[in-house]
Design goal:
about 325 residues, Rossmann fold
Amino acid sequence: MPSLADAVDLFAGIGWAEGIPPLGLTETGLELAPAACSTRRAAGHHTVQGDLTQAAPAAYRGVPGFIGSPPCPGFGKSGRKLGLRDLPHVHQAIDDLSSGRDTRAALNAQCLDPRSVLTAEPMRWLHELRPEWVCMEQVPSVLPVWEHYARILTTWGYSTTTAVLDAADYGLGQRRPRAILIASRTRDVAMPAATHGPGLLPYTAMADVIGWGYTQRPAPTVTGGGTATGGAEPFGNGTRQAMRRVIGTPAWKDRAGIAHLRPTIAECAALQGFRPGLPLQGRQGEQYLIVGNAVPPPLATAVVSAASGITAPALSVPAAA
């Protein structure tokens, strides 16, 4: 029997786990990738390693919160975008699972990307658990899928809301738009109010987070490439003009011959809003993936606060160690 926490976190990674402690909450994370599991354990988060598609949701009955961030490569801007072509099968799987019919294997066999049906996996758990509150996250193109979830949850008595939120509006030092679903069966929900932007706190500049100097050159990006568990995504332009690194060397050139500068892992972690000294585990490429795949903790804090009704503290983004 797994240890019960305040939330069960599917496809857990490290982002939600680091984002909810300021709310006084803990989660039990289900994760497949060994390096991500090692990172979670080193950071003090309860972790169940394995294929959650084979796990029994009934073991988590009574856990009030539910979090789900399925792998996104097939739906992202880069790559072959096969997940977008698989969306009819994903929607069918959601409908079937919401009625207790497990057609995952048959529908997965019809998909172009074997990861696509994972986006329907949370419905299998929601049908079984009926938690008090729900938070879901994916790339912006998945918003119609979250709207499908919301329609079903509404028929079950949940208050729901969906939108694309940008983590920069919650203090992050980079633009990071994410499709978000929030639901509760105990209270009315709404998306969290932005804390940064016009008329609010000023946006956090990428250069200020990691201490880089400014030039007119392209902004740095980092990506670790795709994996079976989901590839890291590029870090885009900051909220000031593009800059380059003061100390360090170019890592690679793109097809146009433009040099791109690779931030360190600590800098990438800071850009994602992680605390200094987060004990990332695994090889260097795995650490980049763990950071790049994660929900930014400041966004996680704001979203879970909106779902659970627990007031979030003032959000801040740590500088790189």
